[in-house]
Specification:
Layout: H1 3-10, E1 25-29, E2 32-35, E3 40-43, H2 46-49, H3 58-70, H4 81-92, E4 98-102, H5 105-124, E5 129-133, H6 142-147, E6 164-167, H7 172-178, E7 183-188, E8 191-192, E9 198-199, H8 202-215, E10 218-222, E11 246-249, E12 260-264, H9 285-298, H10 303-319, E13 326-332, E14 335-340, H11 344-353, E15 356-357, E16 359-361, E17 365-368, H12 376-393
Parallel strand pairs: 3-15, 5-6, 5-7, 7-10, 10-11
Antiparallel strand pairs: 1-2, 2-3, 4-12, 8-9, 11-12, 13-14, 14-17, 16-17
Helix pairs in contact: 3-9, 4-9, 10-12, 11-12
This protein binds pyridoxal-5'-phosphate.
Pyridoxal-5'-phosphate binds near residues 109, 194, 222, 224 and 250.
Length: about 400
Amino acid sequence: MDLKSLDRLHIINTYNRQPETTLLLKRGQGVYVWDEQDKRYLDFVCGLAVNNLGHCHPQIVSAICQQAQQLMHTSNLYYTEPQIRLAERLVKNSCAEKVFFCNSGAEANEAAIKLARKYGKQKKGEAFEIITAHRSFHGRTLATVTATGQPKYHKGFEPMLPGFRYAEFNNLQSFADQINDKTCAILVEPVQGEGGVYPATAEFLQGLRHLCDEYDLLLIFDEVQCGMGRTGKIFAYEHYGVEPDVFTLAKALGGGLPIGAMCVKAKAAEILAPGEHASTFGGNPVVCAAANTVLDILLADGFLEQVKYLGDYFQQKLAQLSSPRIVSIRGLGLMIGLEINGDGAKVVSLCQEQGLLVNCIGGKTLRFLPPLIATEADFDAAAEILQKVFTAFD
Ligand SMILES: *Cc1c(COP(=O)(O)O)cnc(C)c1O
């Protein structure tokens, strides 16, 4: 039986894959992936902001192979060097003091939610409520999907977890209105990803910082998608002149391997005590060796400046596209949304035919998450395909 039919038979259908249009990918190198017919695609999805350094980056592959031959897994009953080094470097390059490792974005946010609840208990008696934003995305576990301010993700799984309130993104007053004696934290993405690529304004994040200071709340930033160089800084919060008390990472941190991290400032670094939270695979030596290499590359001279330059370059290219369908272009660095008036899924499939992988969210926003190692020529090629597709669209 062919593989796509086998998938239909044996994989639970949570991803709505279409056998006619969903590609079966065989290999990747740099900015490209190849399908089973050996057709090449320029990959501007990057495994949903995971393969930020492209596919099979030789330094990452080599770090993984080397570590896999030396020590693959130990559990957190023991120390391992790659994990300790990774924590040291995350702390050195951020506002955080300490780190907890897990395996995904949802788990990192789950850890932050538990930390916030315990903080609320210790500091404020019975405070356990967390305010999150409409249009946000924080994961699919029961707590993180409750934190996700999009009713479509709640449907069918009610009752949701108690202790979450929602406010309007980029509207400080809306957040202020939700604060009460039971509030322990505010959780937002500095750039909303899955909700449609909406960057926060500086006034908004700075205002949240003031509110959190005033009411002794933890300010938690979900940097799972916008972190790790995607916006031209290692962490998106660096654009805003604001430091969170807690931020979460995953996606691109492991260079293609699954890892999550909750990074915590001194203020809350001692809230969780031994035995209160854990993960069997968390901070596994192989994924940490990969993540250390990701940091080597991001921190190399000039790398982030180049990301910033390329972000401007591609946004300019997109602004030059001519189509009555284009409604707006939003983004920060190389995290870019192009909202259209029309069927986004159709644009995605026309792009795919032309050898460009892009993603569409909410039916109308094309989301571009190109590799940070792409060149101007790659962005020129993508823009050319997009122009062709938009021209054919009408
Ligand atoms: C993808 C994502 C998550 C969830 O990460 P998983 O690894 O899929 O659990 C959480 N927050 C944001 C902002 C994300 O983009």
